Amino acid sequence: MTSAPVLVLDDLSVRFGAATVLDGVSLHIARGETLALIGESGSGKSVTALAVMGLLRGGTVSGGRIMLTGRGGQRDLARLPEREMRRLRGGEIAMIFQEPMSALNPLMRIGAQILESLTLHRPDLRTPSRRREEAAALLAQTGIADPPRALRAFPHELSGGMRQRVMIAMAFCASPALLIADEPTTALDAATRGRILALIRAMAASHGTATLFITHDFGAAAAVADRAAVLYAGRLLEDGPIAAVLDSPAHPYTQGLIASLPDPAALHPDERGRRRLHGMPGTVPTPGRRPEGCVFQPRCPIARPACAAPMQPGSGALRPLPGGRRAACLALETAP
Amino acid sequence: MTDATPTLLTVEDLHVAYPAGPFWARRARPVVRGVSFDVREGEIVGLIGESGSGKSTIARAVAGLAPVTAGRIALTGRVQMIFQDPLSSLDPMMRVGAQIEEVLAIHRLAPRGGRRARAVELLERVGLSADLHGRLPAALSGGQRARVGIARALAAEPRLLIADEATAALDVSVQALVLNLLMDLRDDLGLAILFITHDLAVVRILCDRALVLHHGAVVEAGETAALFAAPSHDYTRALLAAHHPARRLHDRT
């Protein structure tokens, strides 16, 4: 991939009032690539998505850039007027959310909702009949068995998986440069979840769409992503190829997360010799009360006094490791 | 688990139906169709199924909260429930300690003067610090709220706990600690737990036995390890195939 990445977050910070919620996040996604942004509640992963979409109600981008390279050239979304942002959303930037029921209009038939998107974002389809054909074709692409029937249905008449397929069809109606998927499979059953993840991957590949896949679910990340970035308390702690991050995490936080997964291999004897999971004691610090130095330091099993020292500007950034990986941990820097 | 271990819950040929259709043509829509199982002391039994499989309805029937149309439910001792979202089951206006003490008072399990001490003991039992006693639920993290939900359930001195997707909303690092706590309660108190979930990975860690539900009927049941090693029913196999642990990266095409 020689062209510029579709999305580059460059030292992005977001503030809500006095609280810094996102603190110097840098990442990039290439054309056709899927990046899983993994984080627990309060990590700032959804705020990252909202910042890219320009939907930070009550919050502001307090530093850094959000560079999107699409059909309209390169633009900094952090500085784009709302009028232009509105034109991008649903067109060059598509979105899918956890709960399609809240994104779909319950009083409108599915067909009318897809036609609305096509009218807005596909000026090349000049006639209503062309748009209707395209709507049916999109639904067929997402694996809906009987598109004409789905087009006539109201959202409540479809299953959760079907509704998510409709959302995916709408998201891809204008071949978006960037897809933001925020926990799109969390509310689905295991079987449906696997099929929807495969569908997102296939659609993104065929449209060359860069995907920012926001999740707390390692299984979903493993199924869909090429690379992973781990966010904790508003800072990026690690990123790299998905297999490397999940199989041999570099940062102590990622290691703790992976060891917490309900996997029989992760069971280990406790002090009384009973088989227990790892878990991570402590809680995620809230934005106003984040510690000095490394944000994970108060919960870190290998923290040293130096980890709590106030950081110099820019020193919270990720440092390169072998294998295209990066991590923000003092312990990794001093290792040979 | 020996045969001498007392059975706390016996469910025999349970049928549950909810009313459906317009009021002039009400009919009964069966949700649970002839389910039988038992839960013994000190045992965690998983009820696995997808949405609509009837797993939560069975839990509600055991707790006396669903219309049983046929069958028998025999229960020894008290049963308590814990839910997915403790914020909706805890009183937002009432301090954590007071909510636990309320349960002690209702069941007359501690004298007025001893309730505070017992509430603190219960908070510590679930791994919370005593100074959470005076907090409101909104001031707690998700993991702390889940633990308060468990402490409040334990206050009634149940022999059986029904956990309906109790860890589904928790982050993995927090979920791990809550699963450890449930295993500790089983091992230390001999508590039996009926654990309802769609998360097979959690069942594998936590449950001694599991039942797989599909369209309101049990399609397969057995020891968890055996069930995972050699599922005999097509639906169980499909469910297991659809579930991908994070480590199985290389199956992807």
From TrEMBL, chain B:
GO terms for molecular function: ATP binding; ATP hydrolysis activity. InterPro entries: AAA+_ATPase (IPR003593), ABC_transp_ATP-bind (IPR050319), ABC_transporter-like_ATP-bd (IPR003439), ABC_transporter-like_CS (IPR017871), P-loop_NTPase (IPR027417). Gene3D superfamilies: P-loop containing nucleotide triphosphate hydrolases (3.40.50.300). It holds the Pfam family ABC_tran. The keyword Repressor does not apply. PROSITE patterns: ABC_TRANSPORTER_1, ABC_TRANSPORTER_2. Belongs to the ABC transporter superfamily. This is ABC transporter. It comes from Acidomonas methanolica NBRC 104435.
